[in-house]
Amino acid sequence: MSERSSIDPGLAALLQAAREVARNSYAPYSRFRVGAALKLSNGEIATGTNVENSSYGLTICAERSAVVRAVAQFGPGMRIEAVAVANLNNSASPPCGACRQVLAEFIAPDAPVIFPAADGVRTMAFRDLLPLAFEMKAK
Ligand code: THU
């Protein structure tokens, strides 16, 4: 998968879902409204928004709230096949590092991640966004 690409038709609906859910964002502090949509291997779409808090560090990003929602709805075996991120601020918003690590738990390495970049919408394979995720190898 290339680093830059036009929007894959298969991802257009997912991106639209991310844009729509961003309208539900709770972002009274930053006013940066983000939405995320996950395409799951069971054919479902799980969405999430950022939810801020007056204790700023307690804020959860859109991507992580979508993951939490997907697990709650579909159980711990849910798998992510594609991710779309959008914001209503006409800004770049690639998934933050913390969200990449959380996505890593459930996502296929070659899953496309589509997000707003400085120069337009960008699509990257997850493995290129987080090449060396932490993995727990219990002994
Ligand atoms: N935010 C996300 O929702 N996703 C990211 O990947 C980065 C940042 C949110 C958190 C906060 O509510 C706002 O954007 C500004 O940082």
The sequence of SSEs as H and E is HEEHEHEEH
What binds here, in terms of ligands, is: tetrahydrodeoxyuridine
Low-confidence stretches: 1-5
CATH class: Alpha Beta
Largest sheet: 5 strands, mixed
Q: For the record, give the distance between the C-alpha atoms at the N and C termini, rounded to a whole number.
A: 35 Å
Query: In CATH terms, what is the architecture?
Result: 3-Layer(aba) Sandwich
Lateral arrangement of strands in the main beta sheet = 2-1-3-4-5
Q: What's the helical proportion of residues? A: 25-40%
What average pLDDT do the residues reach? 95
Overall spatial form: globular
The name of the CATH topology is Cytidine Deaminase, domain 2
**Beta-strand content:** 15-25%
SS field, number of helical segments = 4
**Number of DSSP E strands:** 5
Name the CATH homologous superfamily: Cytidine Deaminase, domain 2
How are the elements arranged and paired?
Blueprint: H1 9-22, E1 34-40, E2 45-49, H2 62-74, E3 80-87, H3 97-104, E4 112-117, E5 120-125, H4 126-129
The structure holds tetrahydrodeoxyuridine.
Description:
The protein has about 140 residues and is α+β, with helices and mostly antiparallel strands. It has a single domain (about 10-130), classed as Cytidine Deaminase, domain 2 (3-Layer(aba) Sandwich), CATH 3.40.140. About 30% of the residues lie in helices and about 25% in strands. It has four helices and five strands. It has a five-stranded mixed β-sheet with strand order 2-1-3-4-5. Strand 1 and strand 2 (about 45-50) form a beta hairpin.
Short note summarizing the structure:
By secondary structure, the chain is an alpha+beta fold. It is built from four helices and five strands.
